[in-house]
């Protein structure tokens, strides 16, 4: 857990990480991601390259062959991947290093850790996090997907929606209700997270249906149906009925990751827009000479720098085992807004060319809008800050 982040200066190891991932990601040009987006096709070649070069090993414990780095380093890698290739390139790293490795190593049983962490590091699995339901988005306590006791395990039934990568996932972490809401001793009790291996189901079926959406189309969102799916008791993540104890750590790591992605994507769009503003000439001078263009791009830089600073703080707090929830939420909020503002200004800077798929600006514009709505809507972040930080009455 490097103290140098307090000085906002990356240490030598972190600089090498950034350089190395930049070199790998840069081997997959805009044309590659443009085609994957157009075809809604999983970037299998890129995923394989990440695995072969050890990038899924980042935060795997040393005793299991990993490098055991922290959230600060994972954040840097995610940020750099987005800065070089966009949102989808970075989100894949989050799926493995955050949703899979971080969750399993912190909360899963020892047998699950020893079997699956080395396999995840080797790129043998894609994992998705199954939380949202048709009737339960940010109102997590209203989820209906159930897990009922059967023999030495549980049987899961229910539906999830907007689940990234579910159609490709061999592993899933599934949030279920093991005690009905009305019977729970406390409103936050009764939820249980399960680790599910789709390749080794003893009973039941997991079905997915792809949603035709507009953001990160290379990865894809899905409806997921669990029909009498049996999972052994050892696959409980954390403790039965105590899923709410696990979710904050998982969601804080997700917010730090989405903030890192947003800032990286914003920097990518800003670099493209600034370069275009320097070379595009109208009325016999570069358009970047006009304050209408220049000031908007300068504001983009200011907002991205601010968002990255609070993201670094949140990652540092996470690694120090401090409560990062305020910083992580602020980072997600600021990062998403900065990325979308920058991408929108890039669209305006490019003019009509920004609407051409060949420019890639429209793809980054579509992708940058996502994190203002999910996984946590910016309105819920503001509600959280109003209630938790400012002590104002609950607004919902």
Question: If you had to describe this structure to a student in words, what would you say it looks like?
Answer:
The chain is an alpha+beta fold and 396 residues long. The chain has eleven helices and ten strands. The chain has three domains: 3-126, Acyl-CoA dehydrogenase/oxidase, N-terminal domain (Butyryl-Coa Dehydrogenase, subunit A, domain 1); 129-241, Butyryl-CoA Dehydrogenase, subunit A, domain 2, CATH 2.40.110; 244-388, Butyryl-CoA Dehydrogenase, subunit A, domain 3, CATH 1.20.140.10. β9 (281-282) and β10 (285-286) form a beta hairpin. α7 (243-279) runs antiparallel to α8 (291-319) and α7 (243-279) packs parallel to α9 (325-350). It is globular and about 80 Å long. Residues 1-5 have low confidence and may be disordered.
Short description:
The chain has 396 residues and is α+β, with helices and mostly antiparallel strands. Helix content is 50%, strand content 14%.
Describe the protein's topology.
Blueprint: H1 12-25, H2 30-39, H3 44-52, H4 71-85, H5 87-107, H6 110-121, E1 127-130, E2 146-150, E3 153-160, E4 171-177, E5 191-197, E6 205-211, E7 221-232, E8 236-237, H7 243-279, E9 281-282, E10 285-286, H8 291-319, H9 325-350, H10 361-373, H11 378-388
Parallel strand pairs: 1-4
Antiparallel strand pairs: 2-3, 3-7, 4-5, 5-8, 6-7, 9-10
Helix pairs in contact: 1-4, 4-5, 4-7, 5-6, 5-7, 7-8, 7-9, 7-10, 8-9, 9-10, 9-11
């Amino acid at each position: 857990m490097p103290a140098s982040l307090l000085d906002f200066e990356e240490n030598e190891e972190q600089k090498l990480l950034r350089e190395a991932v930049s070199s790998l990601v840069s081997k997959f040009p805009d044309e590659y991601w443009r085609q994957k987006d157009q075809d809604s096709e999983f970037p299998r070649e890129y995923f394989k390259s990440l695995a072969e070069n050890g990038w899924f090993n980042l935060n795997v414990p040393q005793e299991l062959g990993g490098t055991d780095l922290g959230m600060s380093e994972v954040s840097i890698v995610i940020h750099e991947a987005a800065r070089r290739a966009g949102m989808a390139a970075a989100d894949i790293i989050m799926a493995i290093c955050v949703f899979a490795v971080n969750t399993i190593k912190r909360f899963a049983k020892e047998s699950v850790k020893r079997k699956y962490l080395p396999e995840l590091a080797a790129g043998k699995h894609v994992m998705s996090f199954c939380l949202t339901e048709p009737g339960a988005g940010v109102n997590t306590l209203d989820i209906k997907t159930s897990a009922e006791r059967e023999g030495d395990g549980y049987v899961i039934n229910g539906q999830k929606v907007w689940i990234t990568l579910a159609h490709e996932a061999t592993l899933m972490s599934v949030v279920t209700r093991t005690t009905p809401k009305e019977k729970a001793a406390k409103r936050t009790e009764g939820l249980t997270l399960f680790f599910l291996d789709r390749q080794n189901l003893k009973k039941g079926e997991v079905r997915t249906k792809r949603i035709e959406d507009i953001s990160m189309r290379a990865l894809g969102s899905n409806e997921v149906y669990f029909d009498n799916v049996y999972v052994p008791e050892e696959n409980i993540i954390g403790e039965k009925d105590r899923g709410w104890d696990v979710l904050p750590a998982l969601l804080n790591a997700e917010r730090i990751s989405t903030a890192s992605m947003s800032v990286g994507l914003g920097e990518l769009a800003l670099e493209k827009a600034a370069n275009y503003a320097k070379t595009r000439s109208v009325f016999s001078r570069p358009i970047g000479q006009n304050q209408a263009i220049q000031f908007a791009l300068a504001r983009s830089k200011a907002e991205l720098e601010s968002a990255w600073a609070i993201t670094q703080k949140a990652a540092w707090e996470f690694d120090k085992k401090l409560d990062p929830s305020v910083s992580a939420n602020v980072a997600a909020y600021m990062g998403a807004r900065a990325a979308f503002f920058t991408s929108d200004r890039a669209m305006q800077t490019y003019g009509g060319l920004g609407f051409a798929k060949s420019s890639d600006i429209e793809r980054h514009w579509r992708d940058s809008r996502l994190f203002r709505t999910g996984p946590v809507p910016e309105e819920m972040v503001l509600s959280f800050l109003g209630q938790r930080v400012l002590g104002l009455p609950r607004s919902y």
